[in-house]
Amino acid sequence: MRILKLGGSVVTEKDKPFTPNTPNIERLAREVAASLPAPMVIVHGGGSYGHPVAKHYKISEGYKTPSQLIGFSKTHQAMVQLNKMIVDAMLDVGVPAFGLSPSSFIVTESRRITELDASNIKRYLGAGLIPVLYGDAVLDTQQGFSILSGDQIVMRLAASLKASRIVFGSDVDGVYTADPKLVKEARLIPRLSLKELDGMVKIGEALNTDVTGGMLGKVREAAEAVAAGVEVILVNAGVAGRVEAALCGEKVMGTVLTR
Ligand code: IP8
Fold first, then answer.
1. Residues 151, 111 contacting (CB under 8 angstroms)
2. In the chain, which residues have pLDDT < 70?
C-alpha cells in the first residue's frame, strides 16, 4: 500500500491563479500508470487553485462572518476543479482513478484531524480503484471551518491504511541543508533520521508561501509517519521518472526519512 502526495506547485502553475500544469499532470499520470498494479492512494495539494481562494476569504482562520461561507464552498469547488483534471488525466492513461472529497469524511479540531472515516476509501481500494484526494476546506469543531493540507491527510491515512511507503512529490529534490532557491551552497540530504530532522524543522520556512506550511509542513507531518515505521521519501515530481522510481522502490535522487 503506497500513498503518493503530489504537491500543488507541481500540478499547477503556482503563481498564476487557476492555471494547471498540464504537462506535469499528464506525465505524472503516465508515471503512476507505469507503477501499477500495487494499491495506492493519491493526494494532491491546492497550488494556484485552493490557496488563493482560501487566502482571500481567510478560511484557515475559521468562521468569522457569513460572507466567508461563499469562500468556504468556493475553495472546495476550486479543489474539485483541479481534482477533475488530475483524475481525467489518470483515466486517459488507464489508471482507475476515483476522486473523493476529504471534506465529506474528515473533521478537524483547531486544524488537526480528529475524525477520519477511512472505511469508504478501503472499499474503493478493495474494488481495485485508486482514490484521488486533495487538501480541502473542511468543517472544524473548534473554529467552524478550516483548510486541511494534503500533507496532514497523507500522514493520517498512512496510519489508517497501514501504508508501507509514502512518496512526497514536490518541486524540490528533497530536504536541503538550506533553501536551494536562495542559498547556492545548499546540499541535498539523501537520508535524514528523525533525530536530525528535529534540529532542522526550520528547513523550508523560507519556502513557506502556503497557508498550510509548504515544505516545513510536509517534513513535520512526515515525521509522525516515519516514527510509526512508514518509509517516507521526498522527491522532485517536476523531474521525469523520479515519482515512478520512488513508487516502485527503486533508487532515486531525493531524501529518505528514516527512524
Ligand atoms: O496544498 C491545501 O492543501 P495543500 C489545499 O496540500 C487548499 O497544503 C484547499 C488550500
1. no
2. 199-217
pLDDT of residue 185: 86
Spatial CA neighbour of 170 closest among 86, 235, 222, 223: 235
How far is C-alpha 187 from the chain's CA centre?
A: 24
Cα-to-centroid distance, 50 and ligand 1 (Å): 6
Q: Containing H/E element for 3? A: strand 2-6
Distance CA 104, CA 36 (A): 27
Residue from 44, 51, 113, 138 to probe ligand 1 pocket by mutation (most atoms less than 8 Å from CB): 51
Q: Choose among 7, 1, 51: nearest CA to 225.
A: 1
Return the closest-CA partner of residue 197 out of 164, 236, 235, 225: 225
pLDDT of the residue at 204 = 46
For residue 227 the three cell numbers come to 516514527
Ligand 1 centroid vs 239 CA: distance in angstroms?
Answer: 22
Contact predicate 167/233, CB 8 Å: yes
Ligand 1 proximity of 21 Cβ (cutoff 6 Å): no
- Could you give the CA distance from residue 78 to residue 96 in angstroms, rounded to a whole number? 23
pLDDT tens, position by position, 191-213 = 988 888 776 655 445 444 444 44
Q: What is the pLDDT of residues 22-41, one digit of tens each?
A: 999 999 999 999 999 989 99
SS3 93: coil
